[in-house]
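Chain A, query sequence.
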Amino acid sequence: MMMKGTSWAVVVLVAVIVMGGYEVHGEALSAAQCKEERRLGLNACKPVMYGKLPTPACCERVRVSHVECVCPVITPSLAALVDVNRAIRLIEGCGRKVPRHYKCGSITTP
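Chain A, predicted structure.
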């Protein structure tokens, strides 16, 4: 199945950022701030969609991204494109622990 670059970038963002199980700290971010955070994550983690490992910049985005900005965009159709086991390996490679049974949008970790 061929997808537009933006769709693949969202899959990358989901696979690498979403499943880190982030706690929410401080004040809620605005819609514009969340959009910018997703854009930064997509750009930093784009090489992952070509089978590469996350770069240090991507791992940094994994560590600083806010769950409230990412989870709302994970629809069932997008979740179906994510290899959860690969996402977990990538996140753990960035030094994050992935919580069991964590629900984010339409994805739940094993």
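Residues 31-45 form the longest helix (15 residues). Confidence is low (pLDDT under 50) at residues 1-7, 19-24.
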